[in-house]
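About this split. The held-out portion is used to measure sequence recovery: a designer receives only the structure tokens and must propose an amino acid at every position. Recovery is the fraction of positions where the proposal matches the reference. Here is one held-out target exactly as it appears in the evaluation file.
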């Protein structure tokens, strides 16, 4: 149960040592957004009422797209479209609500830099959270922040197995990795970190979720 000011990198290194693991070049570390938010103080008082919950959600929203009872489909200040602006009550202390990190890309860069400084190894870092999907049941994890990973693999201009030119295919590898990592990041097991190993070296490089994954208004057919 992470608290404000806790050192996530120390907790991560301790967790690796407890598991008998060490980081290698081209590893990727997944960190759940909840522990990032807690350590960064993105926790607010919550009185348990529907009215207060709605007020918190709308305060974290750039705009509200849909309303149904206390549910809001929102665009957050980051540009994410999700339910209730990502405000979370699970694994929160009584009387509190957890907000999304203010700048998940920056948080990922900070963690990556600290790991490089302390361990002398170059790894990628993803900050992830659980989102629903339009037109599909169930939730999956997606990347909110990224450092050291190319979030989108652009296959435009290459050819498929039949030789056909690919004109629109861009693979959201950051989200695919986040979804896979969620298989071991169980809420009830208090597991905030996952280690992903064996990724193609071409996946690593510059990029961020805000610049490479969040769709611009000009490219969004639903706005």
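Reference sequence for scoring:
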């Amino acid at each position: 149960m992470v608290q404000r000011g806790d050192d996530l990198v120390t907790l991560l290194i301790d967790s690796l040592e407890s598991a008998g693991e060490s980081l290698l070049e081209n590893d990727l570390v997944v960190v759940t957004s909840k522990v990032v938010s807690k350590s960064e103080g993105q926790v607010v008082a919550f009185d348990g009422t529907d009215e207060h919950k709605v007020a918190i959600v709308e305060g974290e929203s750039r705009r509200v797209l849909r309303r149904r009872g206390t549910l809001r489909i929102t665009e957050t200040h980051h540009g994410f479209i999700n339910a209730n602006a990502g405000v979370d009550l699970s694994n929160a202390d009584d009387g509190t609500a957890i907000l999304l990190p203010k700048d998940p890309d920056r948080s990922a860069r900070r963690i990556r830099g600290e790991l490089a400084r302390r361990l002398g190894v170059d790894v990628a870092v993803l900050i992830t959270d659980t989102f629903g999907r339009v037109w599909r049941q169930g939730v999956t994890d997606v990347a909110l922040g990224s450092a050291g990973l190319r979030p989108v693999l652009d296959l435009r201009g290459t050819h498929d197995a039949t030789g056909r030119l690919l004109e629109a295919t861009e693979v959201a590898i950051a989200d695919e990795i986040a979804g896979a990592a969620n298989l071991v990041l169980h809420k009830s097991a208090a597991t905030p970190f996952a280690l992903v190993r064996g990724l193609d070296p071409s996946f690593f490089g510059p990029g961020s979720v805000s610049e490479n994954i969040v769709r611009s208004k000009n490219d969004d057919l639903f706005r």
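Annotator remark: The chain has two domains: 1-37+101-214, 43-99.
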